[in-house]
Amino acid sequence: MVYKTLQILAWAILRLGFRLQVHGRQHVPRLGGFILASNHFSYMDPIVLGAACPRRLVFVARADLLDVPRLGPFMRLMQTIPVHHGEVDVSLREAVRLLRSDQPVAIFPEGGRQFSGTVGVAKPGVGLLATSAQVPIVPVLLKGTFEALPPTARRLRPTKIRVAFGPKIVYPEGRLSREAYETLANEVTASWRRLAGEW
After folding, report:
1. At how many degrees (to 10) do helices 125-133 and 178-198 cross?
2. Rounded (10°) CA dihedral 159, 82, 65, 69
3. d(CA 65, CA 34)
C-alpha cells in the first residue's frame, strides 16, 4: 500500500510538474522477475522509474545514497538493496534471490550518474546478474532528468521528462563467461542508443 500510494503521488507530481511521458510499457513483463536496466543522470531517476514502471521495483544502489536528503527515505521505502564497498557479492546474492522469486529489480549499469549529460556504457555486471538469476533484461531510457536535476544542481527545474521501455533482452543459455556478460551489457547500451534515436 505504501509503495502504491507513493507511486501514484510521484506520477501526479511528475505529470503536472515535468509533463512526464512514458513509452513502451508493453515491454514490461506482467509476471516473473526481470532486470530493469536504466541509464542514470540524476538523483530523480529512481523516483521517475518507480512512477513509470507498472510493476513494483526493488532498486540496487550504493549504500551512501540512502543518506541523501529526500532521496534516502524514498529508497528505504522502496526496499533498496544497498551495495557497501567490498560487499558486492552479498548484494548480488540478494538481488538474485529476489529475481528468482519473481521480483523485478532495477539497476543503473553505467555504474553511476553521467555528469556529461549523455548516455554512457553499461558494465558487464548487468549481464552477470541476468545470467546468474536466469531472467531477462528490460532496457529503459530516461530523458530530461539531467536537465531537471543535474548532478551539480540543488533545485529542480521544470523540464519535460520522458521514459522509454525497450524490448527485453534474453540471457544466453549454456556456460557462463565474461564474454557472455559483456555481450549482454553491449546489447543494453545498444538498446539505450536505439531508444534515444527513436524518441
Report:
1. 110
2. 90
3. 23
Position with higher pLDDT, 168 vs 197: 168
Task: Please state which architecture CATH assigns to domain 2-198.
Answer: 3-Layer(aba) Sandwich (3.40)
Give the separation between CA 6 and CA 30, rounded to whole angstroms.
20
Whole-structure pTM value = 0.91
> What is the dihedral sign for C-alpha 132, 138, 144, 145?
negative
Residue 140's identity, in one-letter code, is V
86 falls in which pLDDT band (50, 70, 90)? low
Which residues have C-beta within 8 Å of that of residue 157, sequence separation ≥ 6?
A: 147, 148, 149
Residue with the three cell numbers 548516455: 119
Are 7 and 51 in contact by the 8 Å Cβ rule? The answer is: yes
Q: Where are the domains of the chain?
A: 2-198
Q: How many C-beta atoms lie closer than 10 Å to residue 43's C-beta?
A: 21
Helix axes 2-18, 45-52, angle to 10 degrees: 110
Query: How many of the other CB atoms lie within 10 Å of CB of 115?
Result: 12
The length of the chain in residues reads 199
- Picking from 52, 63, 182, 40, the residue whose alpha carbon sits closest to that of residue 123 is 182
